[in-house]
Backbone:
C-alpha cells in the first residue's frame, strides 16, 4: 500500500507530457487520459470502454492476444469513438490508467505477468469474485480480503483503486441508454488516486464517483454484486446504487 | 434455515388473534404488528422504535433490565406514540416481530438466552459486526458469515431476516427529519418473511424495502456499513442507499 503522501504518487510523471500536471495540487487532465482495459473483451470491460470512448477518451482494449483485443475493439467501434485493441501487455504499457476487468479466475496470474508495464500507474480493479449455484450468486472468500487487495499485493509498484463494481454491463452496452443512473463507489488508500478515479467515473453521463473507504473495505463492495444480482432477478431490473445525502 | 414453503411460516399463528390472517396468501396486517426491539436503549434500536411508534405500531423497548428498558422507552415517548419498556425476555415474549439491535459483543449470548420466547417469530437482525482503529471502521470476520447467519444458527425455531443495517441513527432520532431517504435491503430465506419485513420498512416515510438476497449474502450488507461510515466522514453526510431501476 502506498502512504498518503503525494510524493508517492508515481503516475504523476512530471514533464513526461502535457497531459500530466507538474504541480501536485493541480489535478491531472482527466479528459485527456488514455484508458486501458484489461479483459476488455468481456461485457463489463467492453461496456466501460464503450462509455469512456464515447466520453472522448482514447480507449485501449486489451485481451490475451492481439487478435482478440482488436476484434473486441472493432465490435465497440462507432462514430467519434477512438478505440484500439491489443494484447494486455501492450495496453498496460500504453495506457495512462488501467481498468482490470478480467475474470476472477486468472486475476492474480494476469496481474503477475503485467507487474512491469503497470508500475507507476493507477490500476482500477472492478473484478467481483463470485460463485454461482442453484441458490444464486454469492461472494467468494479471497485470501487477501478482496480482488482489489490481491491486486495491490501483486502490483506493489502501482496504485490500486477499486471502482466500477456495480455498473450493469447490459446498460453500458445499450447505446440507447444515454445516462447510467448509478453512483460508483471508489475505494483506495491514496487520496489523489481515488479523486482521479471518481472524476473518471463522472465522465460517463449519470455516474457519480463517491469515495467509499480504504482498500481494506473493498471486499464487501465486491461481494455486494451478489445482492444486486438477487435484486435484478426479483425485480427484473438492472439495479444500481445511489448514495443519499451526498 | 427454513424452506420457502409458506407452511413453514410459524409466525402465522392462525386463530390466535385478529392481527394475523388465517389465509396463507393474504399478507398479515402489518400496521397492527407489535414490534419488539432488543437493545432498544441503543441509538439504532431506539431510533427504529421511535419511527415505528410514530407510524402507529405498539413498540416494546427491550434492554438488559426492566428499569433500563423503561427508561429508554420514556426517552422515546411523545404524542401519539405507544412505546413501552421491559427486559429483553419480556419483549421477546410479547412482540409479534422482534428487531435485534444489540451490540455485536454479546449478540450470540443475548440470542441464546432468548431462544424460547423468540421461537415461531420473525426476528429481524440489524447488527453490524464492526471494528474501529485509527484507519477507521472495518467489518469483522464472523465465523457464521454474518451476524444474521449467527442469529439463524442460534434461533433454529425462529425465522431470521436481515434488514435495517444502513439506517442513520442520527436521522432516525431527529424528529425534525420527516422522511428517511433510504432503501432498506432485506435478506432472508423465507419469502413471506422478507415480504413482511419489506412492508414493515415502508411504514417509515421515505423508506423502501428491497429484497436483496438470501441470508448467506448478508455479510457484505452488514460490512458495507464501514463504507457508509467512510462516506459520512468524507462528505459530512448521513449517507443512505437507494437502489436504482427498481
Residues:
Amino acid at each position: 500500500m502506498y502512504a498518503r503522501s503525494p510524493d508517492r504518487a508515481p503516475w504523476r510523471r512530471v514533464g513526461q507530457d502535457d497531459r500530466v500536471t507538474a504541480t501536485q495540487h493541480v489535478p491531472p487532465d482527466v479528459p485527456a487520459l488514455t484508458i486501458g482495459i484489461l479483459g476488455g473483451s468481456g461485457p463489463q470491460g467492453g461496456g466501460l470502454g464503450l462509455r469512456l470512448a464515447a466520453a472522448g477518451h482514447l480507449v485501449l482494449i486489451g485481451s490475451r492476444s492481439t487478435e482478440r483485443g482488436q476484434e473486441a475493439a472493432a465490435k465497440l467501434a462507432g462514430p467519434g469513438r477512438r478505440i484500439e485493441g491489443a494484447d494486455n501487455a501492450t495496453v498496460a504499457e500504453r495506457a495512462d490508467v488501467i481498468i482490470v476487468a478480467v475474470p476472477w479466475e486468472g486475476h492474480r496470474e494476469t496481474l503477475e505477468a503485467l507487474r512491469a508495464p503497470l508500475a507507476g500507474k493507477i490500476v482500477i480493479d472492478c473484478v467481483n469474485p463470485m460463485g454461482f449455484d442453484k441458490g444464486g450468486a454469492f461472494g467468494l472468500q479471497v485470501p487477501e480480503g478482496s480482488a482489489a487487495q490481491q491486486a495491490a499485493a501483486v502490483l506493489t509498484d502501482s496504485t490500486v483503486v477499486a471502482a466500477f463494481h456495480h455498473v450493469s454491463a447490459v446498460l453500458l452496452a445499450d447505446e440507447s441508454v444515454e445516462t447510467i443512473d448509478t453512483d460508483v463507489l471508489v475505494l483506495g488508500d491514496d487520496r489523489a488516486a481515488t479523486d482521479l478515479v471518481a472524476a473518471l467515473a463522472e465522465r460517463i453521463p449519470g455516474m457519480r464517483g463517491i469515495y467509499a473507504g480504504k482498500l481494506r473495505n473493498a471486499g464487501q463492495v465486491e461481494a455486494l454484486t451478489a445482492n444486486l444480482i438477487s435484486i435484478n432477478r426479483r425485480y427484473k431490473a438492472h439495479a444500481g446504487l445511489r448514495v443519499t445525502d451526498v
